[in-house]
Design brief:
Layout lengths: L11 E3 L2 H9 L7 E4 L6 E9 L4 E9 L8 E7 L5 H12 L3 E6 L9 H22 L6 E2 L3 E2 H4 L8 E5 L16 E6 L7 H9 L3 E3 L11 H12 L2
């Protein structure tokens, strides 16, 4: 179970609301063993010491240096799909091993957020990612950044990372054969795709157009498709 604080042996900590409800639903009792993690790597053995009406306190024990990350560090930069599709995308991308997600506001974006609303969205998506980690056994929570305009983000990126633009243009190439690079930054558009000007700007920033086949994939399907392929090639 995820704990939003730094853990250490002998520390007593209160589980978050979702984790506390999970303990209560399972009808666990004081003394029961749990596994907790703080998202920084590895996991901790823990024991329930108190169950209240709305919270659960556990005592942290030994650390286990267990990792379940994929070998390729993938950053997904994507035009945000609308409504609950973004939640589902973050959940599935977390299960598939994404390292970080950068939501983007593009010319054709349906979902547009900025300022305090953007920060609230990022906090909500972090909670979605943490819950997905609990479900799949992962112990590193991917970084979910606050939304940015595409133009503000294009100049960023790891110097050594491969940069892929998921595209339907005629010059798009198939996914490259293994071995995969150590890091990939994959850029994907919103509903309706990126505009021609946005694709040109991405290519000028070093992004290589990559095709995912003859079919047109939804805004919440294309990034998951490339991430699943990477997860299988670099488990």
């Amino acid at each position: 179970m995820y704990v939003d604080r730094t853990l250490g042996p002998g520390v007593d900590c209160t589980l978050g609301a979702n984790a506390s409800r999970h303990v209560q639903v399972l009808r666990l009792q004081p003394g029961a063993a749990l596994v907790v993690f703080d998202g920084s790597g590895g996991q901790w053995q823990a024991q329930i010491v108190r169950i209240g009406r709305r919270d659960v306190v556990v005592r942290v024990g030994a650390h286990e240096a267990l990792e379940r990350e994929i070998a390729c560090r993938v950053t997904l930069a994507l035009g945000m799909p609308a409504n609950e599709r973004m939640d589902g995308l973050i959940e599935k991308a977390t299960e598939l091993g994404v390292h970080s997600i950068q939501p983007l506001v593009c010319e054709r974006s349906v979902l547009r957020v900025a300022g305090e609303r953007a920060e609230r969205k990022a906090a909500h998506w972090h909670a979605v990612a943490a819950a997905a980690c609990e479900q799949c056994g992962r112990n590193r929570v991917p970084a979910i950044q606050a939304p940015l305009p595409l133009a503000d983000w294009l100049g960023q990126g790891d110097v050594g990372a491969a940069r892929w633009l998921l595209s339907l243009t005629g010059d798009a190439r198939p996914l490259p054969p293994p071995p995969l690079p150590a890091a990939v930054w994959a850029l994907s558009g919103p509903e309706g795709g990126l505009s021609a000007a946005e694709e040109a700007a991405a290519c000028a920033a070093g992004y290589q157009p990559i095709a995912l086949g003859a079919r047109v994939l939804r805004a919440d399907t294309a990034p998951l498709a490339v991430l699943a392929w990477i997860a299988l090639e670099a488990p």
